[in-house]
Amino acid sequence: ETLLEIRGLHVEANDREILKGLDLTVHKGEVHVLLGPNGAGKSTLVNTIMGHPQYHVTDGQIFFEGEDITAAKTDERARRGLFLSFQSPEEIPGVSVENFLRTSYGAITKKPVKIFAFKKELAATMEELKMDKSYAERGLNVGFSGGEKKKNEILQMLMLHPKLAILDETDSGLDVDAVKIVSQGVEKFKNAENGLLIITHNTKILEFVDVTAAHVLVDGRIVRSGDRSLIDEINASGFTGLQGAAV
Ligand code: ADP
Ligand code: MG
Ligand code: MG
Question: Where is each ABC transporter domain found (predicted)?
Fold first, then answer.
C-alpha cells in the first residue's frame, strides 16, 4: 500500500527553483534514506512534503494514501499522519513537554485526549527512551541540550503515531548518546503499517532498521537510488562522481 507518492515535483523558494523534477514513492512498512550534499534540496523536499509556506510547488504532485495533498495546509497533513522532526524548535517557557504533546495529539486526532491513558503511555515511552520523569514537566525546549532536543523529537514521533515520520538529521553533529536515542527510537517506531523517510549520513542511526532504499539527491534531482549498500558507497567515495548523473 502506498503512503507517499511524489510525481515530477518542482519547487521554488524566493523565485529560485530548488527541486527540479523529483519522484519518490514510499509504501507502508518501508524505510527510505535520503542522501545528498549540502544545498541539494533535502530539507526543501521534506518541508514541501509538510506544506511549509515558503516553498511553492510549481509543477508536480504529492499524494498521501492516494489523495492529492499538494495544496493542503500543514495542519491537515499532520492530521493525515505526516510528521517532520525539526532540529531547533522554539523555546516555549510556559508550555511543558507533556502539555505540548497532549495538545498536539488532540489537534491531530481532533478528539479529546484520554488523560490517564495518555499519561501512562507517556511515562512508558519516556522510560524506554531512558528519560527522567521530571522532563515531562519542563518548559518545552527551555535550556535543552542538543541530546535532550533530540530525545524530545523522538518522544514526539513515538507519542503522535504518525503514518509517515520524516527525520531531517542533516545539521546533526550528534554525539554517541543522541545517535543511540535516535536509532532506538526508529527501531521502536517502525512497524508494517508505517513508513520512515530519513535524511542522514550516519549509518549508526540505521543500525537496527531494514533500509528499503537509499536515494541520492543532487541539485534538486534524485540522481541515484539503490539499496543500503549505496549509503556505504557514498560514505566511502562522496558525492562528486554523482554530480549531474542520470537516474
Ligand atoms: P539541503 O537540506 O540538502 O542542505 P536545502 O533544501 O536546505 O538543502 O537548500 C537547497 C538550496 O535551496 C540551497 O541553495 C538553499 O540556500 C536554497 N533555499 C532553501 N530554502 C530557501 C528559501 N526559503 N529561500 C531561498 N532559497 C532557499
Ligand atoms: Mg538540510
Ligand atoms: Mg510559484
Answer: 4-244
Q: Which ligand is nearest to the CA of 34?
A: 1
Is residue 170 within 6 Å of ligand 1 at its C-beta? yes
ipTM higher than 0.90? yes
Instruction: Identify which of 42, 43, 44 to mutate to test ligand 1's pocket (most ligand atoms within 8 A of the CB).
Output: 44
pTM of the model: 0.92
Decide: 43 in ligand 1 pocket, CB within 6 A: yes
pLDDT bucket at 221, cuts 50 / 70 / 90: very high
Query: What contacts 61, CB < 8 A, 6 or more positions away?
Result: 6, 7, 8, 9, 68, 70
Judged against a pLDDT cut of 50, whether residue 126 lies above it is answered with: yes
Domains of the chain listed by start with CATH number: 1-81+165-174+194-247 (3.40.50.300), 91-161 (no CATH)
25 lines ligand 1 (CB under 6 A): no
pLDDT at residue number 109: 84
